[in-house]
Amino acid sequence: MDVRNINVLVLAYLGDTIYEDYIRRYLIRSGIANVNDLQTESIKYVSAKSQSMFLTKLSDEGFFSDDELDVIRRARNNTSKAHPKNTDIITYKLATGLEALIGYLDLTDNNKRIDEIMNTILGENL
């Protein structure tokens, strides 16, 4: 199976679960023991607005390879018009780009790169 041919929304579907799991584990390991507090803190990372901001900042810093930028671009340029009511379409598409990249990296067994991305994101908010 050629991962580059998988629908970017499918990659984002997978990437979303990996990203959120990573954030939840990080917050639990940081000592937060209350579920409501975990939910409040997780929004700082898992909202489309936050994901869009992280992606933009990392892109501006030249953090991503050309192959990674291609995945992000494909996801961002997807023709789907659907998006949550609480965010605009551009923010949503950028967030989808980050999630698709993580899904892509997972399916290509590049967990080290996922760790690098997530550690950089988490380092931005420590």
Explain how this protein is built.
With 126 residues, the protein is an all-alpha fold. The chain has a single domain, classed as Orthogonal Bundle (Ribonuclease iii, N-terminal Endonuclease Domain, Chain A), CATH 1.10.1520. The chain is 72% helix and 0% strand. The protein contains 6 helices and no strands. Helix 4 packs across helix 5 (89-107). The model has no long low-confidence stretch (mean pLDDT 92).
List the domain count as a whole number.
1
Number of helices: 6
**Spatial extent as radius of gyration:** 14 Å
Report the major sheet: none
What class do helices, strands and sheet pairing give?
A: mainly alpha
How far is it from the N-terminal to the C-terminal residue, by CA?
38 Å
Morphology: globular
The percentage helix is: over 70%
Q: Give the DSSP E fraction (strand runs of 2 or more residues).
A: under 5%
CATH topology assignment: Ribonuclease iii, N-terminal Endonuclease Domain, Chain A
Note poorly predicted spans. Answer: none
The CATH architecture category equals: Orthogonal Bundle
List the helices and strands in order. HHHHHH
Number of strands: 0
Task: Compute the average pLDDT.
Answer: 92
CATH superfamily: Ribonuclease III domain
CATH class descriptor: Mainly Alpha
Topology at a glance:
Blueprint: H1 8-29, H2 35-46, H3 48-60, H4 66-76, H5 89-107, H6 111-124
Helix pairs in contact: 1-2, 1-5, 2-3, 3-5, 4-5
